[in-house]
Amino acid sequence: MLILGVILARKGSKRLPDKNKKMLNGHPLIYYTIKEALKSDIDVVVVSSDDKDIQKISKENHVECLDRPKELAQDDTPSFLALRHAVLETESNLNTSFDKIVLLQPTSPTRTHKMINKALSVNLDAVLSVHRKTTGTFGLNGALFVISKKVLLSIKKPQKYLIDDLIALPINLWLIVTKKCIDIDTEEDFMKVEKQMKGEKHDTI
Predict the structure, then answer these.
(1) Thinking of the domain 3-198, which architecture would CATH place it in?
(2) CA triplet 79, 155, 96: central angle to 5 degrees?
(3) What are phi and psi of 49, to 5 degrees?
(4) CA-to-CA distance for 55 and 65, rounded, in angstroms?
(5) DSSP codes, 34-56
(6) Of the candidates 122, 116, 125, 135, which has an alpha carbon nearest to the alpha carbon of residue 181?
(7) What is the pLDDT along the chain (205 residues), one digit of tens a residue?
(8) How far is the C-alpha of 124 from the C-alpha of 10, rounded, in Å?
(9) CA-CA distance, 97 to 91, in Å (whole number)?
(10) Which position among 105, 146, 158, 181 has the lowest Cβ density within 10 Å, counted as fewest Cβ atoms?
């Protein structure tokens, strides 16, 4: 089984401008996702971006960066379209075919390679990460999306968020609980993660 890891990191961000390359404890935000992806059981890791700075950061950290078309890097672009483009482009470039796709958002810098590997060990159509909100309730945190390529390509009318596409499909879906994995969307989120990373080791799930 061949596994492709895709990091979607477009240039624009309304709530926290340039967040994917914003410096966090001495490194650009996207660095942490690249580092853990390369340590995981993923076979090939690529970044998809329309940002020249992010493309440069990616290459400096030994991953290929695909030049994402502008029409796939808008606020209302469905994640599925950008992900599918990255998958098909990589397969064409490498003349190969992947079985499983891992979508890694750069906004979850405390996600570890152990988390990724645990999700990869689940042999189902899709695996999504959640965090515990209260007893018996959970919320998506965006840290992990593992999808079989067959399921990915079966999506015909993509919605804005990939989770909405997956819920609408008749597939075997598994939720995996991650601890303290904040999805950075605001300056407040960024400061929380920065404080967390300074005071803790991130090797738990």
Answers:
(1) Alpha-Beta Complex (3.90)
(2) 80
(3) -155, 150
(4) 5
(5) HHHHHHSS-SEEEEEES-HHHHH
(6) 116
(7) 999 999 999 987 777 889 999 999 999 999 999 999 999 999 999 999 999 999 999 999 999 999 999 999 988 899 999 999 999 999 999 999 999 999 999 999 999 999 999 999 999 999 999 877 766 677 777 789 999 999 999 999 899 888 888 888 999 999 888 877 888 989 999 999 999 888 765 444 4
(8) 29
(9) 6
(10) 158
Length of the chain, in residues: 205
Both structure tokens of 3: 């596994």
Q: Which amino acid is at 150?
A: K
Instruction: Give the distance from CA 194 to its chain's centroid.
Output: 19
Contact yes or no for 76/158 (Cβ under 8 A):
no
The predicted pLDDT at position 202 comes to: 46
DSSP codes, 52-96: HHHHHHHHHTT-EEEE--GGGSSTT--HHHHHHHHHHHHHHHHT-
Q: Fill in the amino acid letter for 106.
A: P
Q: Which two tokens stand for residue 147?
A: 């999808």
Contact residues for 15 (Cβ-Cβ < 8 A; gap 6+): 185, 186
Joined tokens for residue 158: 């993509």
